[in-house]
Amino acid sequence: MKAYENPSLESEKISGGQAVYIDQQSPFYPEDNSADIGESDTILDKILLLVRQNKLAVFSALVILIIILLAVFAPVVAPYDPAAQSLRDRLAAPSAEHWFGTDKLGRDIFSRTLYGARVSLAIGLLPTLISMVIGTVLGLFAGYYGGKTDFVIMRLADIMLAFPSLLLAMVVMYTLGGGIVNIFIALSLVNWASTARVVRAQTLSLKEAEYVEAARSMGVKKTTIIFRHILPNCLPSLIVLFTLNIPSAILSESSLSFLGVGAQPPSSSWGLAVTEGRRYLFSEPWVPLVPSAAIMILVMAFNFLGDGLRDVLDPYLKEQ
Amino acid sequence: MSENVLEIKHLKTQFFTRKGVLPAVDDVSIEIPAGKIVGIVGESGCGKSMTAMSVMGLLRHPGRVVSGEILLCGRDITHLKPRELAKLRGKEMSMIFQEPMTSLNPVTTVGKQVEETILLHESCSREEAKKRVIQIFNEVGIPEAEKRFDSYPHQLSGGLRQRVMIAMAMVCRPKLLIADEPTTALDVTIEAQILELFKRLRDETGTSIILITHNMGVVAEVCDYVYVMYTGQVMEQAETFELFANTCHPYTKGLLRSIPKLSEKVDRLYTIRGVVPNLLHLPEGCNFCTRCDECQKRCLKEQPELYEVKEGHKVRCFLCEKGGA
Amino acid sequence: MSLAEVNKERKALLTAEHLYKEFPVEEGKKKEAVHAVTDVNLSLMEGETLALVGESGCGKSTLGKTLIRLYDSDGGKILFDGTDITHMKEREFAPFRTQMQIIFQDPYASLNPRMNVFQIISEPLRTHHRYSKEELSERVYQLMDEVGIAREFANRYPHQFSGGQRQRIGIARALALNPRLIVCDEPVSALDVSIQSQVLNLLKDLQEAYQLTYLFISHDLSVVKFIADRVCVMFLGMICEIGATEELYENPLHPYTRFLLNAIPLADPALRSEKKTLLQGDIPSPVNPPSGCRFHTRCPYAKDICSRETPPCRTCGDRIVYCHFPLGEERS
Fold first, then answer.
1. Do B22 and A11 touch (CB under 8 A)?
2. Are C254 and C322 in contact (CB under 8 A)?
């Protein structure tokens, strides 16, 4: 009859509308007995739900796990020293000896890709974590205190977001010089703004929540309210955001390295490997294609996992 | 039998969840005579809304009608395809919900939305449709109907929004209107106006109305027949005056006694002890036995059926097995 | 001893004098305000239950929250136990904070979903006292017993409880600091009928046990009739009428009170009146409230003066009515 009649089901509280959503939400069917309380939706439940619902996300998680294991145990797994040159074998095609062939200096591409995963994962996880912590704290304070605090923080964030982040990172890298540690700093500084925005928006709505009002009525301190009542309720979206920010950090590192301001030779960064190999795209295609494929697989895996997590943790964002 | 607009026969609707099968509607039979208001009353989770959803074909996964028949004007609509059902919705039967704001599209004017409903089901020109919208707006008591045609939902008060919903539901002159807690979100003075409107619609258009509510006062005010539901089952059904004058089921009695009365001052309210059981773990015998003051040994083991106490008055309680309490 | 006499003997716990509260709204360039509470004078006697009734948007919740300083007032004075608390700094106010608590309407929204029952109930205690671990858990368990939540559920999270049980948890939290005043903001309107009566009985028992003073905010006049000693009827941010419950229900003086009482659907079809006198029209917007008596646009008895002048405060015993033409006087 009407396209908009369905959303109303979600707002039903009194008439037992929960039954409709029983699959995703709390399993109680309206009023439960004191002796017979519904079980909780633990994290385990949610993971099980993810496993059942989204095979792709689970597969992605597996891929990520394997890449992490390979990166950690690279010295054990890698058949060659990633830095060992062998000019006799330079630009060798993939073979039983060199699975992915060798590059222009005769280094084993398979081994270098394994070591490169360390760089990419570190860049993906650490700067993202740092930038998100910064962004979360700033977003919480901007949202909760409002007024001038909010104005200053958010204009700063606007400025950060107005610059192309890659350009900004390049500026930082030029100032600080190349190298992995500096990439860490550059990416940490650049990426906090989007997190701050998301957290601020959530804080704005959460601070109107009745339980926050209840805490105020008890005289709970503002900082306590922020960290005890608001932050934990932002966590699900932060986890999702984290998984979705990792690939963009990985891509930024690759781009920076590709442009020559990121990782410097002889680092085994994938981005650098693509730059170095791009001359051989037509003659010896495995040289640039293997690191490119590695970047693509890792980024896609994180994206799929992030989407899957969002579906489970953030039912509001999910479209029916 | 043909004068019944809607007949629900032994309807069973179940939700197949991870934790088990929920009997949301359990063997419910309801008859809606033409031109009457029938109330379905009960607490949350009693299955009153799910009964309505089953009729409208709006059940969502993992809910499913398992057995039973739904006859709309004698035609079996239980097994209709979604598209055929969609054709009936809005034309033959329509439904309004508790919170009108979520049922209205916030970015389209209310007039356009009602117009769409007409154009969807009938072939007529836009001008003609608009005329009919303004006419129905007047009928449901929206003041300055022509001006309101161009209003957006957020510009209207809760009462007016509910009137728009009623207009939208009634514009194609359905034979059956299902109103799911239509006044719960409204203020008392507005609620009284809307209830008055229901009575008028029944008398003037002959539409049958199913009024789903948790409020015994609303039932007493406007309904001709009442079905009291509890944990998916009909516990008691009767003509309204009969039900209030000659209440038989302990649950109905308890519900009526636990409402604070305006006419008397008491120190403590009567309470039905405990809470509604989880539908996954219903008691073995009568569904109400865990909370019933008159519970006997037999109630713990056997499920009572609906026993006829008087003509048209049925009670699901062993106390009434011999007819009459 | 009549209730009026009882009230005279009791002292006022909380008094509001000419209290105002406005919320700024920006519509386009115009800066306007929702006049949520306008010129409210009210006294809450020690140990009584005063009900604030009215329709949505009448400012009853805002008034309740302003009185316990959850919102800052925009004019007027609030006295708690004789002390002016209107503009106290947060630190000075802290000892008063513990004496006034609030129970919210929506038991689904008023409990933090990520805290368990123990954490929720113990939060006010941890904020204001330095209890040892044992003392803390003893007090929390005692509170849980008090409101009827089994002790073994201390580690459960709110979503595992039903509405009625959640409301009990909210009540335990409000009781934790041994307050003298509890603002009950529609505490039962989100609950099922059979659960509603359980919670109402609980509130009444607790009041008796701890000599609590309640400000009971509700739109349900039957509930109010059961629980309140006195009733204050509000319309669009202003008080219409205050009086002892029985008297006010028997003999409403303000036309609005009468229409409100008339509109309640009664659970008895025999009392069904075919031609009820119903209030027509909608509630005017609190952004631009009508001049003079704010009820005059809906009032069938309104005369010229009603749209021009704010009605005066008329008192008769402990009955207060703001109306130019109270019922039962000129017209009877």
1. no
2. yes
Q: Which residues of C touch A213 (CB under 8 A)?
A: 65, 70, 104, 110
Output the pLDDT for position B193. 86
Query: Which residues fall within 8 angstroms of residue B252, CB to CB, at 6 or more apart?
Result: B228, B235, B236, B243
**Taking CB atoms and an 8 Å limit, are A224 and C109 in contact across chains?**
no
Please name which of C247, C240, C298, C306 lies closest in space to residue C54, comparing C-alpha atoms. Answer: C240
Query: Among candidates B55, B186, B166, B63, which has minimal Cα distance to B117?
Result: B166
Of B136 and C26, the one with more pLDDT: B136
Verify that B220 and B107 share a domain, yes or no. no
Contact status of C163 with chain A (Cβ, < 8 Å)? yes
Ordered domains of chain A (ranges, CATH): 1-30 (no CATH), 40-319 (1.10.3720.10)
Q: Enumerate the H helices of B58-125 as residue ranges.
A: 82-88, 100-103, 110-121
Same-domain pairing of B69 and B213 = yes
Continuous H helices in B152-258: 158-170, 188-205, 216-222, 240-245, 250-258
Secondary structure class of B240 (helix, strand, coil): helix
Residue B304 located in a structural domain = yes
**Mean pLDDT confidence for C152-174:** 89
Give the closest of A3, A10, A15 to B48, CB-based: A15
Using the Cβ of A38 and the Cβ atoms of chain B, whether some distance falls under 8 Å is answered with yes
CA closest to A32 among chain B residues: B278
Q: Which domain holds residue B283?
A: 4-92+174-259+268-320
Domain co-membership, B46 together with B158: no
Give the domain-ending residue among B123, B158, B173: B173
Whether residue B325 is contained in a domain is answered as no
> Does one domain contain both B67 and B136?
no
CA distances from A231 to A65, A222, A313, B93, C22 (A): 28, 12, 15, 47, 30
Average pLDDT for C37-57: 91
Band the pLDDT of A32: cuts 50, 70, 90: very low
Going by pLDDT thresholds of 50, 70 and 90, the confidence category of residue A24 is very low
Indicate the average pLDDT of chain A.
77
Q: How big is the B-C interface in CB pairs under 8 Å?
A: 130
- Residue C128 has its nearest CB partner, among A31, A217, A219, at A219
pLDDT confidence of residue B294? 87
Q: What's the pLDDT at C143?
A: 94
**Which chains does A contact via 3+ CB–CB distances below 8 A?**
B, C
Q: Which pTM was predicted?
A: 0.82
pLDDT band at B251 (very low <50, low <70, confident <90, very high): very high
Residues B229 and B306 in one domain: yes
Give the domain-ending residue among B146, B173, B200.
B173
Secondary structure letter of residue A13 according to DSSP: -
Nearest-by-CA chain A residue for C104: A210
- Which of A218, A219, A232 has its CB closest to that of C114? A232
Kindly state the helix (H) or strand (E) to which residue A215 belongs, with its residue range.
Answer: helix A210-217
Q: Does B1 touch chain C (CB under 8 A)?
A: no
B115 CB within 8 Å of a chain A CB: no
How confident is the model over B16-57, as pLDDT tens digits?
Answer: 887 788 899 999 999 999 999 999 999 888 888 899 989 988
Probe site for chain A from C71, C96, C111, C160 (most A CB atoms < 10 A): C160
Section B59-69 average pLDDT: 87
Neighboring chain A residues of B172 at a CB cutoff of 8 Å: none
Interface check for A175 against chain B (CB to CB < 8 A): the answer is no
Percent of chain B residues past pLDDT 90, beyond the cut? 36
> Rounded to whole angstroms, how far apart are CA atoms C285 and C288?
6
Domain count, chain B: 2
Whether residue A25 lies within 8 A of chain B, CB to CB, comes out as no
Residues B201 and B276 in one domain: yes
CB of B177 closer than 8 Å to CB of B96: yes
Residue whose C-alpha is closest to residue C120's, from C157, C65, C160? C157
C208 Cβ under 8 Å from any chain A Cβ: no
Judge whether B197 lies within some domain.
yes
Do residues B124 and B36 both lie within one domain? no
**CATH code of residue B278:** 3.40.50.300
Q: Look at residue B322 in the predicted model and tell me its pLDDT.
A: 76
User: Band of the pLDDT at B234, cuts 50, 70, 90?
Assistant: very high
Q: In this structure, is residue B240 part of a structural domain?
A: yes
**Do B146 and B280 lie in a common domain?**
no
